[in-house]
Amino acid sequence: MKVLFLQRDPFVKLGIATLSAVLKKAGHGADVLIESLEKDLIKKAEECRPDIIAFSITTGEYSWMSELARKVKARIDAPIICGGAHPTFYPDIAKDPSFDIICRGEGEGAILDIVNAMESGKDITGIRNLVVKKDGRIYTNGLRPLIDDLDSIPYPDRGIYDKYGFFKEQKHRHMLTARGCPFQCSFCFNKLYNDMYRNNGKVIRRRSVRHVIDEIRALKTENPGLGHIFFLDDTFILSKQWVDEFLGIYKNEIGLPFSCTARANLVTRDLVKKMKGAGCFSIRLGIESGDDHMRNDILKKEVTIGQIESATAIIKEHRIRLLTYNIVGTPGETIENAFKTFLLNKRIHPTYAWCSLLQPYPGTEIFEYASSNGYLSSGHDFGNMESSYFMTSPVKMEKARQMQNLQKVFALGVALRLPAGLVKFLIKLPLEALYEKMFQLIYAIGISRIDNIGLMQLLKTASHSKNYFTKK
Fold first, then answer.
1. Is residue 376 pLDDT above 60, yes or no?
2. Is the dihedral of CA 130, 131, 132, 137 positive or negative?
3. Is it the case that residue 260 has pLDDT exceeding 90?
4. What order do you get walking across the sheet with 130-134 strand by strand?
5. Rounded CA separation 132/119 (Å)
6. How many CB atoms sit inside 10 A of residue 408's CB?
7. What is the pLDDT of residues 156-165, one digit of tens each?
8. Tens digits of per-residue pLDDT, 264-273?
9. Which of 57-66, 108-117, 206-215, 232-241 has the lowest mean pLDDT?
């Protein structure tokens, strides 16, 4: 059996690469096609002669996927399965006539059960994690327990992307060392995920240090020019014991520069010193808001200004590049509230201050709050949500145009430490198109510095993308 994955933009998706590895280990075939890198995606898909066509999507990709799946179904006689974060939380998309199967939660076991059953002619309507349409009926099944031993999952099959020389030019690789997040941020899907799997497996799991190290060693062997590693875990430093063990071995056996995520209340001077010594060159830190009420009561971040200022000072003291994540346009937020976020970033002065307008994804706690308190625009649904720069939002805001302009000039204002009075004046001007171009330029420069990626390589990625440097 052969599964063909379809995706929109030129990025290695570790979820797809992992499912490919699982399928190939079991003797099946897998391939991937990227729409933005193909002249005629559907014709190429026909040539692959797949038994199953698969998508893995976030909410912002739903409209794209639904339209493409409809076109594919008209020309290719193969069942279409959709997995990833979006169908996990919104299985009702099974009603969309473009899809035959919806996969919720972890897909490794489910995808194997599907191909094995189809190969032997068995029924698939009772497979756990799946919502299956058959003969006019929809069969909805329960979830299987989460995979407890992450070391049992094969390394991601990044080679599935090698057909595109674009990826071979890249000097970095992304990795995940863990699954799950214990925190309860109201704007994030993790709270929903934890609730979904309550009493059905351990949500927070981590690969063994040796399993991760051995994968990186294999990557270095396969890619002699490998320059650095990005750890994409929600909070890389979640377990001090694991990180301490990992850093010691990583420093001695790997020695590549790396980037990771952190959380302000978990940052200590001793930990950052060890990270720097092991090769950490950049850290991403979620601040979200400089206003205590917005940050902790509404967004449920549960960190203090003191913890943020202490963590960022320690990171900068060790000459590690710092990216901060910030949100404006939270339900009920005023311009004055939002400027507290700007002023906080101006004080700590990160390498790059990312800022987005709040995206209240349906099902999240912040969506329920915004909806029940009248902050959502009429007609809002996930079909028209952004998946790139988050420069629009369905949230009703006080002085909406000023808030949207603030989001666009935020990073530049922080980088240049512009006076708040000047920024307040600038966001009142009707210069939205100019501010959008400035935002994109500063984004490219900022990410280039944070991720240690050449600006030309980043611009090349953007030029191959249908999603970035555009609103939709």
1. yes
2. positive
3. yes
4. 29-34, 2-7, 52-56, 80-83, 101-103, 130-134, 137-140
5. 17
6. 25
7. 999 999 998 8
8. 999 999 999 9
9. 57-66
- pLDDT tens digit sequence for 276-322: 999 999 999 999 999 999 999 999 999 999 999 999 999 999 999 99
If DSSP codes are grouped into helix, strand and coil, which group holds residue 148? coil
Q: What angle do CA 58, 63, 68 make, to 5 degrees?
A: 105
Closest CA to 213 of 162, 175, 156, 157: 175
Q: How many residues does the chain have?
A: 472
Global pTM value: 0.93
Closest among 339, 285, 282 to 309, alpha carbons compared: 285
- 3-class state of residue 324 by DSSP: strand
> What is the mean predicted confidence (pLDDT) over 142-156?
97
Report the C-alpha gap between 57 and 11 in whole angstroms.
13
d(CA 77, CA 133) in angstroms, rounded, equals: 15
Q: Is 304 left (phi over 0), alpha (psi -120 to 50) or beta?
A: beta
Residues 233/177, Cβ–Cβ less than 8 Å: yes
Mean pLDDT of the region 165-182: 89
DSSP 421-471: HHHHHHTTSS-HHHHHHHHHHHHHHHHHHHHT--HHHHHHHHHT-SSTTS-
* Beta strand pairing call for 130-134 and 137-140: antiparallel
Is residue 93 within 8 Å of residue 86, measured between CB atoms?
A: yes
Question: How far is residue 117's CA from residue 401's CA, in Å, rounded to a whole number?
Answer: 54
